[in-house]
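INTERNAL AUDIT FORM
Audit reference: QA-55
Scope: verify that the stored structure record matches its stored sequence.
Auditor: D.O.
Record contents follow.
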Amino acid sequence: MCIRDRSMIVRNRDVDSKPYENIMFKPRPGHADYAARIKYGGYNDPRGGGRFSGRITVAYVMAGAVAKKILSLIGVEVLAHAVQIGSVRVEGEVPYDEVRRNVYMNPARCAVPELAQRMVEEILSAAGEGDSVGGVVEGIALNVPAGLGEPVFDSLDADIAKMLFNIPAVKGVEFGAGFRIASMKGSEANDQYAIRDGKIVTLTNNAGGIIGGISNGMPIKVRVAFKPTPSISKRQRTINLEKMAEEEIQVAGRHDPCIVPRAVPVVEACLAFTIADHALRAGRIPRVIKSL
């Protein structure tokens, strides 16, 4: 990566588009090939998925790196870690110190070392079968001031969710207790208030740090579900768009059997620059910063 004239550039010098020549008119199951072809009248770039490829997230990560520096001015810290890959899942809360210490110490990007190896084995097992697995990434933002968010149309959780859904392969987003809250009673779901060290806090965080579309001062917690990598070597059914005939497809090329580890810094980045944007809008961060 280089920074020049206030821009950041990442040059991809390791490109091989040949595998896509044979499937130019065969939309890959699980990819946006067909929908994009209809949307853009055949002018979509089929190589590597074009703008629908995970490659687009390098720009998110660059923006997130800048946003995290800006957020550090007001003491906000953003973290992320893999909490599920395939059938291997982290149960319960992971202390923040362990997330800081362990995530980038293993290839699964998991904060629990004993589960990280099992996640790697899950990925390798799927790859050995010509298949893939998905998973869940948890994003955490600490020390976020209360009052961020612009309801109705720019609620904080709505903007975060919207940005997270712009990450390719994301199929679900939940805050705090998420879908579990549907099975709770009000007395269980409500985050009751208390005062700790002169600060207003909630005794639980089922809301995930956001209530009514506005941050409440508690840690923002969001979980993001990623589907299994759609490019797999198993034979699948598709359509030949030139011949308008049903055919089979077997995707070749270089594809990750699981994108969850790569998605960890992407979730972290998207959470960071969305919160930074709202902090700027709320006047918590000055619009002109002389030096970072």
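Auditor finding: record pair retrieved intact. The mean pLDDT is 93.
Action required: none
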